[in-house]
Please model this.
Amino acid sequence: MKRSVVLFFVMLFFYPVVVRANIVCNDGTTSPSCSTCHKGCCSRHGGCSSSSSSSSGHSSTSSSSSSSTSKKPATPKVVKSSDTSLKKVTIDEEDIPVLDNMVYTTTKESVTILVVANDSKATLDYKKNLDLTIGENVINIKVTAENGNVKNYKLSIKRERILSSNKNIKIFVAGKEVNFNSFKSDIISVSNDKENIDITYELEDSGAKAEIIDNENLQVGHNEIIVRVTAENGETQDYILVVEKEDLKEEVKEEKDVVQEESQSQDDPKNDEDATSMAYVLFGTGFLGGVSYFIYKKIKKN
Model:
């Protein structure tokens, strides 16, 4: 009984060594200590090779190798991109800020739109060439990511009407059209009792506006009245009316001169008649004197 117990413990102690000592050296001997072939194993017996093992070890390795090769390698799972962002948006080659709601203003009748996504695998759906109407034109940009995610961007293009720069005008004073030279009129004379002048006008462009400046409390002498035209696009042009208001004294003097001229013209017919009568008297007197002298000479001779 004691001998069996001792044998059991001896086998229990040396069994791992026996199991591990399964490397056959190159000279045919078995390594007493190596369980695997490595540098230094069987150094006195010509080294070893990894395939040189005992039948038990080889069987174990083959079984392990067989079990590992029987499994198929796992296929890595492909994660598709969910990127729906935009890299850039251009309108007629002009970059605009990328936002969920984009706004662009132009006066053009049509535009070309280019959209680029950040992910090359994303797909884009939008109208690239667009004819614009006056006002707001809305374009929807649909981005579909590789994994199917969808995002819509709104692009609002506002087309403004081209505003006119026409500042042409016809100006009338007391119903008579005024001529201008370099936007300045000839002298317009008004009487002393005038505080302003009667101005009307016709604009060539209905979208333009006109404003009359300084047409009140006219002073004696030189005055300048401005007719300022503002075109539809905001440009302005001043038309200057040069007004001379007469002095009251000069006006009275002129009136007297006119009265005198009229009086003289009325007196002229009477003066002509007097001169004619005088001419007849002188002619008659001379004729009678001549006849009397002729008779006197005749009598004296006889």
